Amino acid sequence: MSNIHSSAVIDDGAEIGANVKIGPFVTISAQTIIGDNTVIDAHAVITGKTTIGKDNHIFSHAVIGSIPQDLKFNGEEVELIIGDNNKIREFTLLNPGTIGGGSVTKIGNNNLLMGYVHLGHDVIIGNNCILANGATLAGHVELGNHVVIGGLTPIHQFVHIGDYAMIGGASALSQDIPPYCLAEGNRAILRGLNLTGLRRALQRDEINELKIAYKELFESPKALQETAKNLQSTSSSEHVKKLVEFIAKSKRGIPYIRK
């Protein structure tokens, strides 16, 4: 049985799962679906075609699913999909997709969005990501899994960030960051591998293979795409292959200083 405060406003048509807790003055619109065991704190607003999975915690004054901040938006049916076990902290703003971007913004599982985080339209976020306070993702940004974004960091539209990458706080990112890498600065550039994150996830020999590949790619005078192509055909490491495949597909380019 759900626990819904008497002051909450829930439109007819909203689907509320089992054991959901809804606090005072929460507003939930008709197209919303909320999964089991989710907690929604006071004054949160959930609107639009928004689907929220189970075991999430949405903190007070979050605004989830309000229309995209895109002047081309003209009332089309678009949606926001949120997975399971996410923590969405105070004053976050999450927008749905747009017709031009696939019509959906999607957040995976086990993510932490700290206070004042903004996710623009058509953003795609994987699993186990951490976005610190004030991180701002423009439209069409894509994050892989286990990505960490430091506080007060804006990310340009259409940027892609690979698995286990980390962006330092107070950076400004306008290009793609490959998996396993660390970037920071304004404008942010690669500073090396995200060794702290990698040591939690990979074996020492796997990290050493990435170190060798990183030096070949970003610390040699050779052309980046040529080196990536060579590593793709010669390396047996699945992580190195993932790294060079990301580079090959990058549309915004990789920000690094050629040695």
Automatic annotation (TrEMBL):
Source taxon at top rank: Bacteria
GO molecular function, one term: acyl-[acyl-carrier-protein]-UDP-N-acetylglucosamine O-acyltransferase activity
Domain UDP N-acetylglucosamine O-acyltransferase C-terminal: 176-254
Annotated GO biological process: lipid A biosynthetic process
Record-linked Gene3D superfamilies: Hexapeptide repeat proteins (2.160.10.10), Udp N-acetylglucosamine O-acyltransferase, C-terminal domain (1.20.1180.10)
Similarity-based family: Belongs to the transferase hexapeptide repeat family. LpxA subfamily.
Official protein name in the record: Acyl-[acyl-carrier-protein]--UDP-N-acetylglucosamine O-acyltransferase
Organism: uncultured Sulfurovum sp
Gene: lpxA
